[in-house]
């Protein structure tokens, strides 16, 4: 495999990894929104999703996860 092909393959794998991480955050927000809404009915789903994303960024290891 040549370097450009290897780089393209690695980029595709990283893109898939990033997409999977975003999907997981969205699913977590969907599943946890009802409980948050019950205690704070003024919070929109978008605000809740942004909180879930921020919390995930603060979690140790997620941003430092070893990438392929």
Tags for this model:
disordered C terminus; single chain; 68 residues; rod-shaped; 2 helices; mainly alpha; 0% strand
The average pLDDT score comes to: 84
The first-to-last residue Cα distance is 16 Å
Structural class: mainly alpha
The rounded Rg comes to 16 Å
Question: pLDDT below 50 for ≥5 consecutive residues: which ranges?
Answer: 63-68
> Percent of residues in helical segments?
over 70%
**Main sheet attributes: strand count, strand direction, barrel closure:** none
The total count of helices amounts to 2
Q: Label the overall shape.
A: rod-shaped
What string gives the helices and strands in order?
HH
Structure description:
This protein is mainly α and 68 residues long. It contains two helices and no strands. The chain has helices at 3-39, 45-58. Helix 1 crosses helix 2. The longest helix is centred in the N-terminal third of the chain and has 37 residues, at 3-39. Mean pLDDT is 84; it is low at 63-68.
